[in-house]
Amino acid sequence: MEVLVLNFILNSVLGSGKVLSPQEMNVIEHNTQRIVYWNIGHKVTYLMYPIALIAMAIFVYGMYKRYKMWMQGKADDNRGDDLAQRMEGAFEGVFLHKKILKKGYAGLMHGFIFFGFLMMLIATAITTIEADTPANFLDGTFYKVFSFTIDAFALLLIAGIIMAIYRRDVQKPKNLETTNDDWYAISFLLISVILGFALEGIRIAITDPSFERVSFVGWAISRAIMVFNPSIEFLASLHKGAWWMHFMTTMFFIASIPYTKFLHIITGPLNIFFRKRAPLGQLKIIDMENLDEESRFGASEIMDFSWKDMLDLDACIRCGRCEDVCPAHNTGKPLSPKKMINDLREHMVDESTGKNKENGINLIEMRITEDVLWSCTSCGACMVACPMEIAHVDKIVAMRTNLVMGQGKLPVEAANAIKKMGKNGNPWGLPQNERANWAKELKITNLDETPDADFDYILWIGSMSSYDNRSQKVAKAFVKILQHLDIKFAILGNLEKASGDAVKRIGAEDVYQDLAKHNIVQLDKFGMNTVNGNVPKKIIALSPHSYNVIKNEYPLLGGQYNVIHHTELLSSLINAGKLNIDGELLKTVTYHDSCYLGRYNGVYEDPRNILNSIKGINLVEMEHNTEESFCCGAGGGRMWMEEPLGTRINEKRADEAIAVKCDVVATGCAFCMTMITDGMKAKDKDDDIKVLDIAEIVAHSLGLIEVKALKK
């Protein structure tokens, strides 16, 4: 009785479905053919395409509104350069899921959903072409392969959806935010694929061709339907109803893309394509020579960001990967990279709707607190982890720059360090003419004293190794290695000043440029600049921070140099057979990846190659290593600031080293060495675990110096 009532309703609303004649069914069987509109009729296109146009109009209007929001931002040069590399990166990011798949469960889940949904779109496109053009695809062997493939990928899609529901409703990762928008996306996908399978099953139940066994899911559904022995007329009407439901669901999906989480289908690939192609460790510079009274330093309003920054905001999918790796967030600081991006996104939307005129336009007053900005260590972990290639750190530094240069708001300790670096060229304010005192007894060529000396390398010492007693030991150890190998090198001595890395990331762009320009002038005196041609001479940097700023940021001010880190040189000498370490060291060693050497410049293997070349060393890895290394807490100028909020970042990193039961933590950075040493002291482990630079370990193994901790 219920079936008869349902059949009556379907026939009344939709009209009775078409029952195929025996001749038509024989044609389908003989040709291994699928007829698209067999039950709907071609006249349906008179209604179908107007509805599709309405859906597309809603979609286009929504995307135009988003585009207008993005264009509130400033121009951004060089986002269309390197077209081939951009296409390659977009392909890797979108279709190969290069970053997404790094997270096991979540990556597999998204892969199932993405590729399943992509195949559904391809199937819809092929079916539409088959139905509404003279082209003919859906017959013969192609149809069998097509139908089997679509069923298989649709099952993957369902598997991905189930995984997503389980992840959000059962696992509930702490950094994964779930909103109604997420449930809408999941629900739509599930309803869409269920309707698709239902349509296929009903169609096969009616037409019953033997070749449809390749549509294994649809075939199984059709067999289940036939158990109830429904009439063909009823099934035809039911098919028509399901077809319209599926069509309207698809149209609703298209219309909803700009207004829901599905927006990332558009903004994600766009953002990856227009991603930052400059080195990750390169920040933009301010043209200090062409400022006027209306110029604004950094970013205080949403419109101070570029259009690409705005696109960043719309590309975020709140996956929480940035929070998972953020050292500030994971030690109780107020910074959440995800929340910051979404707060900026809300501000962008409010700017476009006029709300900011009522509520206020200042980002830092309205959306982002100062504590959020000063919590960042600029470690870059968020940017490396982000599958959408969002540049979080660049935005933080832009807002810091406005705080410092536009409003004069910054921590007292940071202000003191900036003042001293600007006046004396180092963060302690110590005399510039004492910068090379550490080297007096080492017989080093000092270009400040002998400018005509011959050399192959300039050794960039940095402020830490010039003035800090502990870091000076690293410089002396490395110098002894160079002298042992008869490598011709020199130092700038008192001509060198702080590289400017810290002041730039704190936000004092003017002081940074003064320091950088001074250093560029000094380096250029000795023919190091490659801007006018190849220069065989190289700069060896002891500090990853100096290494990064000279290599990646000085070029923006006209200083292009061949720069290597001291671990890169040692590793290359080992590989070339020029450095043979015969000593044995029976120690368990873990290596701490500096953010500025590793994530920003991709140097991971060279330090490990050095350690593995020393006999007896048992090299073990901490929980977070290589590109997922956990920051020491000193980057972004935080070396010169107090850390009053949350737990100390260096202590958390020390805990990871303690957990692997090592004897030595090896580093290639004076900041990291200082911070992790302090972390060990806080954990009362400084007697058990020593923190040493790789240069010290090598020099000890060569018998050039004696490190007591390595003799035990």
Helix and strand topology:
Elements: H1 2-14, H2 22-31, H3 45-70, H4 83-94, H5 104-132, H6 140-171, H7 180-207, H8 216-226, H9 232-256, H10 264-273, H11 307-315, H12 321-325, H13 337-353, H14 355-359, H15 363-366, H16 370-374, H17 381-385, H18 392-406, H19 412-424, E1 445-446, E2 457-460, H20 462-467, H21 469-484, E3 489-491, H22 501-506, H23 509-525, E4 538-541, H24 544-553, E5 563-565, H25 566-575, E6 588-591, H26 605-612, E7 618-620, H27 649-659, E8 664-667, H28 670-682, E9 690-693, H29 694-701, H30 708-711
Parallel strand pairs: 1-3, 2-3, 2-4, 4-5, 6-7, 6-8, 8-9
Helix pairs in contact: 1-9, 3-9, 4-10, 5-6, 6-7, 7-8, 7-9, 10-11, 11-13, 21-29, 25-26, 27-28
Estimate the strand proportion: under 5%
Helix content: 40-55%
Structural class: mainly alpha
Strand element count: 9
The averaged pLDDT comes out at 91
Biggest sheet layout = 5 strands, parallel
How many domains comprise the coordinates? 4
